[in-house]
Design brief:
- The complex is a heterodimer of chains A (about 375) and B (about 375).
- Among the domains of chain A are: about 220 residues, 2-Layer Sandwich (Alpha-Beta Plaits), CATH 3.30.70.20; about 35 residues.
- Helices cover about 30% and strands about 15% of the residues of chain A.
- Chain A has 11 helices and 10 strands.
- Chain B starts with about 20 loop residues before the first helix and ends with a strand.
- Chain B has 2 domains: about 140 residues, Formate dehydrogenase/DMSO reductase fold, CATH 1.20.1630; about 130 residues.
- By secondary structure, chain B is mostly helical.
- Chains A and B meet through strand 2, helix 4, helix 6, helix 7 and strand 6 of A and helix 1, helix 3, helix 5, helix 6 and helix 8 of B.
């Protein structure tokens, strides 16, 4: 692909395309939502390090999520999704479908129903619920009864993607927690459309806003296919002693802690994450770790596990922040097929050019048509 | 506690204790979603008697508590107003240059002055919509071809410069007598550059009218992005009919012949392109925001005004009164079209279904065609 084409779409090295010489290598996050415990330490660490003002205190009644979504004053956001058994089964089914589609990196399915393969499955008893639900004794009896069955019946809980029989039924309930963040896209819609150059591509391949250049046109807000960047409103509440709220009217988002990266430090959220759900490093290593982790989960029977953003051939050329999800992306509020609108820009300008020529032609007809 | 055989049909957690919140059980059910949005009737599903029960259930996909996936543009009414007035500026510039070429003095003067006024108002609207208006000049510190707003800023700046020259030439012609000395030099200079400036104004007018469609389409806003193939034709048509409508109001009937013809061509372009745009959006499943609510009402009114204005334009050659009414109808129709499209786009960004459903559909379509390597979701 030529230099100009690479600027708008497809797989590429964004820092090099932006003109950086000897860039230090693209950095990124790998957010493994399967081990997120929803402590929100990432949100807090991010707010503290970046001195982000408060944007309201309210209970949303949406599980434990009182933050809502990513925005000007929320650069990390932990999503909480509560699901019943039907939804879990549906998530598994969609995961199995992805495997059967033969997505990239997946070879032929492993040999079916390997006898003697490691047993796989949730296999963990759900904690007894206070006051209702089955008692712990009943659950233990049920588990024992199941384990005592003959191997032929053992397949009744289905198999993993590799064909290993599963042990243990799906849980009746699960809680998905996921820490969302700016994706630092390879082809970033916000960066492409910024008319002032306030948004720029850093040497680490990340996308950063320069608050002193941004004039608050708001174009990047609508151009982000993930709904990440936002203009800070004057409704924000200060967290500083002098009562000042910085950057009102200016677009704000995660910088992947550009200031910390310049001193070889880990971003605040990744450093604080107590479960290593948020990992930080070279993007290539992150993608590799993500692939290894999704394989591991599949082997353990979590067919619903999948990666988000690890494909460099998608609509945004791959994202700097890679996620491991346990359901379809829209369940977490992520778009299922995001496209950087600028990748269609040549086509749009061409159409507009035809329309403009048509207008000139119409004007010519209007003036010359009357003379005859 | 169990006293009846029917009690077995009860949910297991009922019976004296606080009823479990439905969102605990299934946060993606319609009941929980309507509860999260604060509307009543999650228990009975009938909307609390204020609304009829839904005959068709919500389309199946799980959103995150009904929250939007993409952010709506933070643009207020200044931007649709600019789309309209910028369109008037562009069309007036074309009319002014055409009139200068064909010797229609009144049409030329009034078109050029209209263009200047519209440019001034447009500039004000654009600056006032910024989050930090005092930094508006930052747009001029860079040229960025990937940003339709940057490209548009330069188109607008170029157009404004040419419009300034042609307006100055018009004002000079209005001076009571030709002066000598430095003023005279300036006036002679203006005479010399008037024609080139008029040509420049016409050449910048077309991109000025068309670029705003790219400005909207080059975003993640579902309705605007899916409109990208037809919106430019709607916008140039709308600009042509709006500017022509304004000149039908301002200029005498004898001079406004070209404006009437341009208005009719604009009406034809607007109506045909709008029809094709609506079919396209219907296909993509994002037409609803343009049909319903405030935007839907505005768009229906706009269409009626444009059709009526077009019919009036046919008869406007005979009567100034008819011309004024038809011209005003056309201009109002254009303004309403712009407001409706911006409004519908912002609505389409607020509801996750307009983002998720078309994306899922196109993903499925690609998979059905055998393309499985371009999805953002992968396994292993």
């Amino acid at each position: 692909m030529s230099y100009l084409q690479r600027q708008l779409g497809g797989r590429t090295d964004p820092a090099q395309d932006a003109g950086w010489q000897d860039a230090p290598g693209r950095k990124g996050f790998f957010t493994d939502t399967s081990i997120c415990i929803g402590c929100k330490a990432c949100e807090v660490a991010c707010k503290e390090w970046n001195a982000i003002p408060l944007d309201g205190l309210a209970l949303s009644a949406n599980s434990y999520d009182n933050t809502g979504d990513l925005g000007a004053s929320t650069w990390r956001h932990v999503a909480f999704v509560e699901q019943d058994a039907d939804r879990i089964a549906a998530a598994r089914e969609s995961g199995r479908r992805l495997v059967e589609l033969g997505m990239p990196g997946v070879g032929a399915p492993a040999q079916a129903a390997t006898q003697g393969g490691a047993p796989a499955g949730y296999g963990v008893l759900p904690a007894p619920v206070e006051d209702h639900g089955p008692s712990l004794g009943d659950m233990l009896t049920e588990t024992r009864a199941f384990e005592d069955r003959s191997p032929e019946d053992g397949a009744s809980h289905g198999t993993t993607v590799d064909g290993t029989p599963m042990v243990g039924a799906l849980p009746e309930f699960r809680w998905l927690m996921a820490s969302d963040v700016c994706k630092h896209c390879t082809h970033a819609g916000c960066l492409d459309v910024c008319p002032t150059g306030a948004l720029f591509r850093s040497e680490h391949g990340t996308v950063v806003v320069q608050a002193d250049i941004c004039n608050g046109c708001g174009y990047c807000v609508g151009a982000c296919p993930f709904g990440v960047i936002e203009r800070r409103s004057d409704a924000s509440t200060t967290v500083r002693g002098d009562g000042h709220v910085p950057n009102i009217g200016i677009a704000q988002k995660c910088t992947l802690c550009y200031d910390r990266l310049q001193h070889d430090q880990t971003p605040a959220c990744a450093q604080t994450c107590p479960t290593t759900s948020i990992r930080f490093g070279d993007r290539d290593d992150m993608v590799e770790a993500a692939r290894a982790r999704v394989s591991q989960l599949h082997e353990q029977g979590f067919t619903e596990a999948r990666l988000y953003g690890a494909n460099d051939d998608d609509g945004v050329g791959g994202t700097g922040s890679v996620f491991l999800l346990l359901d379809e992306p829209e369940v977490y509020g992520l778009p299922p097929d995001p496209v950087c609108a600028t990748s269609r820009l040549p086509e749009m300008f061409r159409t507009a050019g035809y329309a403009g020529l048509g207008m000139l032609g119409a004007a010519a007809v209007a003036f010359l048509g009357g003379r005859s | 506690m169990t006293t009846s055989a029917f009690d077995s049909y009860r949910p297991p957690d009922e019976g004296g204790r606080r009823r479990r919140r439905p969102s605990l059980r299934d946060n993606v059910s319609g009941a929980a979603r309507s509860m999260a949005r604060g509307s009543s009737g999650w228990l009975t599903g009938d909307g609390g008697g204020r609304r009829e029960a839904q005959a068709v259930p919500d389309v199946e996909f799980s959103s995150y508590y009904g929250r939007s996936v993409v952010k709506p543009m933070p643009w207020k009414h200044e931007i649709p107003a600019y789309l309209f007035i910028g369109g008037v500026a562009a069309g007036s510039g074309l009319l002014g240059t055409g009139a200068a070429a064909t010797g229609l003095d009144v049409l030329r003067r009034r078109s050029r002055l209209t263009a200047m006024a519209a440019v001034a108002v447009s500039g004000g609207l654009l600056v006032s919509d910024l989050g930090r208006p005092e930094r508006f000049l930052n747009m001029l510190r860079t040229v960025k071809l990937t940003s339709p707003m940057s490209v548009g800023t330069w188109i607008f700046s170029g157009y404004s410069a040419f419009t300034g020259v042609t307006t100055a030439a018009e004002l000079a012609r209005m001076l009571p007598q030709r002066s000598s000395g430095p003023v005279g030099t300036v006036l002679r200079l203006l005479d010399a550059v008037e024609t080139p400036a008029g040509v420049g104004q016409a050449l910048f007018a077309a991109p000025l009218a068309a670029y705003t469609s790219v400005l909207l389409s080059d975003t993640a806003t579902p309705l605007w992005f899916e409109s990208r193939r037809h919106l430019p034709f709607v916008f140039v048509g709308s600009a042509a009919l709006a500017a022509s409508g304004v000149q039908m109001v301002l200029s005498p009937v004898a001079q406004a012949g070209p404006a009437r013809r341009l208005a009719l061509l604009g009406v034809a372009s607007d109506l045909v392109a709008m029809h094709r745009l609506e079919s396209q959006l219907e296909e993509d499943g994002v037409r609803e925001p343009m049909e319903t609510g405030h935007a839907g009402r505005m768009l229906r009114t706009a269409k009626a005004l444009i059709v009526a204005g077009g019919l009036g334009t046919v008869l406007a050659g005979r009567s100034r009164a008819v011309a004024v009414v038809a011209g005003a109808a056309l201009a109002t129709g254009s303004a309403l079209t712009r407001f409706a499209i911006v409004d519908a786009g912002i609505e389409s960004a607020k509801d996750p279904k307009y983002t998720v459903e078309p994306q899922k559909a196109r993903l499925e379509q690609r998979r059905a065609q055998g393309t499985v390597d371009d999805s953002i979701v992968t396994v292993r």
